[in-house]
């Protein structure tokens, strides 16, 4: 199928505003400095609100069109030189449209929430500046019409994420977490960059349409390599195995950051990347197999570690890791499952943002306590937070008719449908994951809101102000309603991008899978309720090897240390030695030669007109002589 | 007898006034400027001259825009109006306008950067008096307008004699302008005298070259020379020696090694706004003339002059880059940087192709904007004795004035050719054109020297940001509206041409065709 | 007296004649003059009128002389163009246009004079 985009016309011509508005707002906030302290947060939130309204108008514009393949708005070309050119432009298609709505919609709610959450923070203006920068970069990421722009946005969100994780840079843990996120992302980004180089080298372009149309001409090995390199980039950004270790640490940033960047939007960029480059993955069985494997492994890892953590934000972070695992699993399955992965992404954006904001609200009322062993019985003290958190919790475990049910069940079902024995394995893993999710989320919910208070001295839990609770309520409404709505509408909406897929005959019927899932979920939730109904010990208790391993993040940090850090350190030491002795010697020698030559030549610049005239005359004689020599030879 | 024959064949040349308008307007405005000097009351002169000059350049620019697309030879073959000519004239007008903003700044110093009476003996009582209290000179405006008019004519001259006249018309005012600095009068006068003596010396070469070429071709117009290059029965040595000498005159103006020796001294001594004007506009005009001579008149001897001029390009890049390493004065550093940049333009010129022509035009404009902004910032870093140009005084500037240090860092990165600045796009263009024309050796030399010259730039960056400001670090003056505008325009152009170069690239591409 | 170098023969003869006159004059002087060796101081000076040719070689000249020299050059150049113009301006096809052009040319030069006058260069003070 030949892919072609129409040129943007009419109102869609202004699609660039989506990026420009938050970018200008960020520039104002960061450049004006203290002068903007008084009103900066409202500008920050307002600009995202305006962007959301714009996104809505564009969405309806696109919906009213007959051909919804997407429209392209070319901005400028950059240095078209001999087979190497990048046409910078924007692509507004159904896929970009739903991401734009998610980013600006959820983003707006979280911005409003942050106005209240950050009200006592002296760095609030700076926070909103970075936050707006993130929104602009994220929109650039989803709206670009080529992989280079995607990469620029990719790095932009990476930068914003780094700045916001280490927002409290005076706390060593936050500074380290920021660096960790930045460094681990470099590994993934290097893969992504090489994939782009590969496109340049083999296809001479990075435009989406040209790349996708050209995939057919490439050899299988090249496509597989391209797919795996893109996947490496996606794993880095989305916190997938084996590059998932930065995401839980990223919770050191302010909670709105965790909600927007590290739950709802940025970490799903990997899913976007794979969905966007689906023709590449469709063309390579191997790459797809690797994607589903990674998704399955990650979703299990996330669940297992999530069961053993005691920090409310870290449990949610591992939950994010595991839920994105589901999305990877879905987009790896290909075909009709692409849309399922994206639906889960959108639904997850709502309920996970709501859960994080709820956690933030709890922390707000509990003097920034994050240890769930120190909560308990909060339902009475913060009604709104409790109800909204409850809805988010029910959504994530997949209780019908909340959104998780509509988005997760079909993924589990599709996993079973994968051909051969792998379908049974993947389906079972996804099923076990659902049970574990129910278990650890129940544990989290029960320990926080029910049972007897286990607070530290001097806690006076209270409900958060309306500026925080209203976004919570709206997100809760989204968690309840969004799943059902999207499950029916999104696959058709995305058809122009992902193509039509017919349901092939089912190995297991839908009802069977639903029944199995419900059974597992009820089992997990019941177990969690039974175990933690009466609270838990205040200190970490000795436990069996599996729990200990889970508490230690399944030793992935240790693994990283041994596999990457140690050889890295040795390599660095060797390189430093080589650098000091070898390269520096050569460089310094060269520099000394140039410097010495410069000093000597400089003496020719005497300042006397007569010697200058002599130099000109000498030059003239040489030029004339050279001309004659060239001519006569 | 002979007079009768001459009279019979003599006819009034046809003049295309629309095509000549850009230059005529400027010369007319220059004359009006002299008139204003003669009769307007002293107090009114500055505003009148400023408005007159700005309007004059704007009118000239309008005439250029209106003439866009013209391709003809007019005024009895003396002036060629074509794509490159109009593009160069337009660049000269725009860059000249920005330089005029710098020149007109009077809020940094009472009376501006110029003294009213440059002939007063330096360091005498009267001289010190006028340096501290005297009002500024307004003669600079007609001088600059005449100079810009001369540059435009130089870029459009279609025969060697017109070219020579234009050369003198734009050089003489520059000699005078160099001598008028308010501070460091002795250095300024020395610069002017050096520039004048060496300029006269180079002009002599140019004139001698014209004579020899005429001896060979029997014509001085470029089409005639082009026709004669392969067909004339005369001794070919005349042609080559003549070409070499004409080239020397042009290479001198463009500051290419080994004819660059005047540049550092003159750039340092001249008032900084005038240095900016020379670095931006004179470079455009000089390369405009060189392009026309090489592409139109001597195109058919390219196989002969290419290796020689190639060697000069390599030498220029090397000398500029290597000598920049040990400079201790920011203006001298920028002077050597401009020498090296002239070498890069020559690399583009020597492609002798459409791409080479287009990329050289682009380079000249891109460099012109950057260098104007850079010298604009130099005028701002000052203490009680005027500008603090010694590099040691710039240490720690990043702490004192982060905005200007950031801007200057950005401009230095542009000079070094870092991507996303106009410097990268421009260098990329000339190198690409040279490779296409099989002049890879020039590109190799260009890349090596780029690496060398990045060192002095980065040294300044390191000094500004990583050193603690000392006692002697001067404050950065708050710029007046004019300097602020000039620096903003220059820096914005540097950024835009780095990120969105395509419109200007297209423009140079469309302009790159000489009429013969 | 013909051939390529023929025209140089005249030059050669002139040079030769000059040398002959020079040598002849000095020889005549030597033969005719009275011989009176003396030690009086004035006798060995270059200029017997009494002007001392020895002294510093940096003599300052009045700057005004230069200004007058420039103004003179201005009008000398003008006349160089005026003569050929005067020969042809009444021929067909020239007429009015030629008069206007020359008027502009003269006006530009006059502008220079006006400027010099207003700057009080013409006053010797």
From TrEMBL, chain A:
Keywords: Membrane, Transmembrane, Transmembrane helix. GO terms for molecular function: NADH dehydrogenase (ubiquinone) activity; NADH dehydrogenase activity. One of its GO terms (biological process) is electron transport coupled proton transport. The chain crosses the membrane at residues 15-32, 39-60, 95-115, 127-144, 150-169, 190-208, 214-236, 257-275, 287-308, 315-339, 345-363, 384-403, 423-446, 467-491, 511-532, 612-632. One of its GO terms (cellular component) is membrane. Residues 79-128 form the NADH-Ubiquinone oxidoreductase (complex I) chain 5 N-terminal domain. InterPro entries: NADHpl_OxRdtase_5_subgr (IPR018393), ND/Mrp_TM (IPR001750), NU5C-like (IPR003945), Proton_antipo_N (IPR001516). It is a multi-pass membrane protein. The keyword Membrane applies. It is found in: Endomembrane system; Membrane. The keyword Membrane applies. Residues 145-430 form the NADH:quinone oxidoreductase/Mrp antiporter transmembrane domain. Pfam families: Proton_antipo_M (PF00361), Proton_antipo_N (PF00662). This is NADH-quinone oxidoreductase subunit L. It comes from Virgisporangium aliadipatigenens. The gene is nuoL.
Automatic annotation (TrEMBL), chain B:
Its EC number is 7.1.1.-. One of its GO terms (molecular function) is NADH dehydrogenase (quinone) (non-electrogenic) activity. It comes from the Bacteria. It is an enzyme of class 7 (translocase). The chain crosses the membrane at residues 17-36, 48-66, 86-103, 140-157, 193-217, 237-262, 274-295, 307-326, 333-355, 361-381, 402-421, 441-466, 478-500. InterPro entries: NADH-Q_OxRdtase_suN/2, ND/Mrp_TM. HAMAP family: NDH1_NuoN_1. This is NADH-quinone oxidoreductase subunit N. It comes from Virgisporangium aliadipatigenens. The lineage of its organism: Bacteria, Bacillati, Actinomycetota, Actinomycetes, Micromonosporales. The gene is nuoN_2.
């Amino acid at each position: 199928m030949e892919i072609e985009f129409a040129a943007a016309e009419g109102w869609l011509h202004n699609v660039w505003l989506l990026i420009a508005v938050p970018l200008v707002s960020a520039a104002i906030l960061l450049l004006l400095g203290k002068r903007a302290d008084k009103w900066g947060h409202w500008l920050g939130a307002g600009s995202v609100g305006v962007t959301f309204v714009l996104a809505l108008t564009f969405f309806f514009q696109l919906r009213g069109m007959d051909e919804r393949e997407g429209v392209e708005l070319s901005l400028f070309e950059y240095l078209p030189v001999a087979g190497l050119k990048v046409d910078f432009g924007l692509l507004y298609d159904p896929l970009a449209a739903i991401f734009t709505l998610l980013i600006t919609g959820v983003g707006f709610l979280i911005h409003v929430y942050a106005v209240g959450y950050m009200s006592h923070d002296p760095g609030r203006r700076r926070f909103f500046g970075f936050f707006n920068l993130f929104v602009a970069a994220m929109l650039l990421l989803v709206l670009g019409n080529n992989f280079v722009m995607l990469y620029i946005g990719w790095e932009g969100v990476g930068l914003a994420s780094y700045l916001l994780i280490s927002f409290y840079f005076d706390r060593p843990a936050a500074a380290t977490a920021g660096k960790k996120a930045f460094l681990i992302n470099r590994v993934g980004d290097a893969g992504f960059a090489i994939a782009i180089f590969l496109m340049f080298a083999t296809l001479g372009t990075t435009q989406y349409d040209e790349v996708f149309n050209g995939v057919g001409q490439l050899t299988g090995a090249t496509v597989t390599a391209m797919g795996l390199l893109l996947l490496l980039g996606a794993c880095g950004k989305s916190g997938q195995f084996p590059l998932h270790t930065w995401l839980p640490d990223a919770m050191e940033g302010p909670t709105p950051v965790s909600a927007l960047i590290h739950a709802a939007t940025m970490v799903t960029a990997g899913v976007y990347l794979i969905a966007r480059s689906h023709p590449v993955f469709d063309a390579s069985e191997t790459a797809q197999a690797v994607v589903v494997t990674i998704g399955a492994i990650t979703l299990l890892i996330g669940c297992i570690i999530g069961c053993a953590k005691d920090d409310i934000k870290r449990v949610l972070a591992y939950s994010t890791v595991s839920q994105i695992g589901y999305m990877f699993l879905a987009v790896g399955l290909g075909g009709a499952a692409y849309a399922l992965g994206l639906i889960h992404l959108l639904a997850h954006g709502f309920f996970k943002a709501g859960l994080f904001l709820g956690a933030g609200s709890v922390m707000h009322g509990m003097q920034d306590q994050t240890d769930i062993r120190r909560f308990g019985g909060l339902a009475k003290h913060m009604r709104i937070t409790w109800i909204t958190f409850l809805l988010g919790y029910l959504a994530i475990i997949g209780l019908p008719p909340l959104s998780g049910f509509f988005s997760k069940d079909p993924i589990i079902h599709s996993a079973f449908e994968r051909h051969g024995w792998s379908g049974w394995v993947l389906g079972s893993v996804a099923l076990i994951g659902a049970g574990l999710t129910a278990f650890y989320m129940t544990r989290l919910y029960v320990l926080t809101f029910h049972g007897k208070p286990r607070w530290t001295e001097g806690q006076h839990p209270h409900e958060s102000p309306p500026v925080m609770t209203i976004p919570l309520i709206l997100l809760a409404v989204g968690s309840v309603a969004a799943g059902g709505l999207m499950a029916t509408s999104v696959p058709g909406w995305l058809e122009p991008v992902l193509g039509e897929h017919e349901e092939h005959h089912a190995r297991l019927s839908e009802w069977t899978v639903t029944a199995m899932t419900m059974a597992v979920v009820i089992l997990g939730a019941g177990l969690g309720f039974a175990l933690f109904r009466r609270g838990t010990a205040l200190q970490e208790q000795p436990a069996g090897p599996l729990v200990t391993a889970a508490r230690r993040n399944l030793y992935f940090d240790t693994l990283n240390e041994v596999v990457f850090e140690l050889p890295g350190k040795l390599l660095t030491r060797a390189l430093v030695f080589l650098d000091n002795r070898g390269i520096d010697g050569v460089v310094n020698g060269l520099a000394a030669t140039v410097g010495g030559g410069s000093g000597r030549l400089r003496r020719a610049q005497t300042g006397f007109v007569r010697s200058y005239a002599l130099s000109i005359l000498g030059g003239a004689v040489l030029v004339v002589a050279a001309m004659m020599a060239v001519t006569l030879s | 007898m002979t007079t009768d024959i001459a009279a019979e064949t003599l006819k009034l040349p046809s003049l295309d006034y629309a095509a000549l308008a850009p230059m005529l307007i400027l010369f007319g405005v220059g004359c009006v400027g002299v008139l204003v000097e003669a009769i307007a009351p002293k107090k009114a002169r500055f505003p009148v001259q400023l408005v007159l000059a700005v309007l004059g350049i704007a009118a000239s620019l309008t005439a250029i825009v209106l003439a866009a697309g013209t391709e003809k030879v007019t005024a009895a073959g003396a002036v060629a109006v074509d794509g490159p000519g109009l593009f160069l004239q337009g660049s000269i007008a725009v860059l000249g306008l920005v330089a005029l903003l710098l020149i007109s700044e009077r809020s940094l110093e009472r009376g501006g950067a110029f003294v009213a009476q440059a002939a007063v003996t330096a360091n005498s009582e009267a001289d010190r008096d006028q340096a501290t209290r005297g009002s500024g000179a307004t003669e600079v405006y007609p001088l600059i307008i005449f100079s810009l008019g001369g540059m435009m004519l130089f870029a459009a001259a279609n025969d060697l004699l017109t070219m020579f006249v234009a050369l003198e018309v734009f050089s003489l005012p520059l000699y005078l302008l160099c001598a008028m600095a308010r501070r460091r009068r002795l250095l300024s006068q020395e610069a002017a005298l050096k520039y004048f003596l060496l300029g006269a010396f180079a002009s002599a070469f140019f004139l001698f070259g014209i004579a020899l070429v005429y001896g060979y071709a029997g014509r001085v117009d470029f089409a005639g020379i082009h026709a004669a290059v392969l067909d004339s029965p005369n001794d070919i040595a005349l042609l080559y020696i003549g070409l070499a000498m004409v080239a020397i005159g042009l290479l001198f103006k463009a500051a290419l090694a080994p004819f660059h020796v005047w540049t550092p001294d003159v750039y340092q001594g001249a008032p900084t706004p005038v240095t900016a004007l020379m670095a931006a506009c004179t470079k455009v005009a000089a390369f405009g003339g060189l392009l026309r001579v090489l592409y139109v008149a001597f195109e058919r001897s390219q196989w002969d002059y290419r290796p020689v001029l190639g060697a000069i390009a390599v030498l220029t890049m090397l000398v500029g880059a290597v000598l920049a390493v040990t400079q201790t004065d920011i203006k001298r550093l920028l002077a050597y940087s401009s020498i090296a940049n002239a070498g890069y333009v020559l690399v583009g010129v020597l492609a002798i192709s459409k791409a080479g022509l287009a990329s050289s035009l682009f380079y000249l404009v891109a460099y012109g904007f950057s260098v104007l902004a850079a010298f604009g910032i130099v005028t701002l870093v000052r203490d009680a004795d005027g500008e603090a140009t010694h590099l040691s005084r710039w240490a720690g500037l990043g702490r004192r004035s982060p905005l200007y240090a950031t801007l200057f860092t950005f401009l230095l990165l542009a000079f070094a050719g870092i991507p996303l600045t106009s410097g990268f796009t421009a260098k990329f263009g000339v190198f690409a054109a040279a490779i296409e024309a099989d002049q890879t050796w020039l590109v190799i030399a260009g890349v090596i020297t780029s690496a060398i010259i990045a060192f002095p730039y980065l040294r300044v960056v390191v000094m500004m940001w990583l050193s603690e400001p000392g006692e002697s670090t001067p404050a950065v003056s708050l710029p007046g509206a004019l300097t602020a505008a000039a620096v903003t325009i220059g820096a914005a152009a540097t950024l835009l041409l780095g990120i969105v170069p395509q419109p200007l690239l297209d423009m140079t591409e469309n302009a790159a065709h000489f009429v013969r | 007296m013909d051939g390529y170098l023929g025209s140089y023969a005249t030059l050669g003869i002139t040079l030769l004649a000059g040398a002959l006159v020079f040598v002849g004059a000095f020889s005549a002087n030597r033969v005719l003059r009275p011989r009176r060796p003396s030690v009086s101081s004035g006798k060995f000076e270059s200029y017997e009128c009494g002007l001392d040719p020895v002294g510093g070689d940096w003599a300052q000249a009045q700057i005004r002389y230069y200004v007058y020299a420039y103004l003179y050059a201005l009008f000398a150049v003008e006349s160089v163009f005026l003569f050929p113009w005067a020969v042809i301006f009444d021929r067909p096809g020239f007429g009015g246009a030629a008069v206007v052009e020359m008027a502009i040319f003269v006006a530009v030069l006059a502008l220079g004079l006006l400027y010099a006058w207003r700057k009080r260069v013409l006053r010797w003070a």
